[in-house]
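Structure ticket #2291
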Amino acid sequence: MASVVAAKPAAAPLSGDRARSRRIVDRIATASLWTAASAVVAMLIAFVIYVFVQGYSAISWHFLTGYPQSAVAGGGVGPEIFNSFYILLLTLCFTLPIAVLAGVFLQEYAGPGRFRDLVQFSAESLATVPSIVMGLFGLIVFVQLFHWHFTALGGALTLTLLNLPAMMRVTQESLAGVPNTYREASMALGATKWQSVLRAILPSAIGPLTTGVVLVSGRIFGETAALIFTAGSSVSFGASAYDFNPFHTAETLAVHLYSTQREALVPDATQIANGSALVLLVMVLLFNVVARIVGRQLTQRFTGKAS
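Resolution: structure written out below.
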């Protein structure tokens, strides 16, 4: 029996007016997307130029290495720069292991269930807590209950609680972006679940994880409310100002900027604040660039391709 194949009717060609209308809509959409993307770049450039113009006159070697003054002009921000990087390092040492392991558990190990929902709910609840409330929690626990007073360790632990949800979420999204073929190939070669995660999945997600570290670090550099209540708003003088002891008072550059503008006790308070803002901005940008370079190098080393 001969089979009858029904021929599909050919699509009717678009009329000239309709095709022209679609091209116009496409061009408008393309222009809108380019405008939005360019606006982001323009805002960043304008912000950097404004901060640079306002603060470059205050930058000097004495300003970058000197000690702050409480009542006379000419103070520096050397200890504050040190404390900013020191608290950043302490916070990342606490945040990264916990957040990455929790993200790996949620993405690779935990199946649907109450415990997984509980962990997700806890992380989302932490993410909604305002930083000043987290600072009050750190004040009650680390300063008063533990009798640590104002310390870099108390500030770092408070910032850890503040940044855990974001880093956990970034870890989950990074691991979710790794193709399942990587997991299947690793398991087919006889690797265990943990070996697959450690040697195949995590190295493939180094690029997005680096982006998460950059975002978290920017928030740590710029945090003020949580650190005022836990790390303090003063520094030591002499050799103790650059002390690696985690139990010393550690005013960061962002807290110093806020305190200087709020109190305005020194005659050059505005100049110090503008200079501190420029230094803080340069610190964040440099850390961003260095972290991305390191992330690309690690990605190339572990996967053999650039991120």
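Closing remark: The mean pLDDT is 85.
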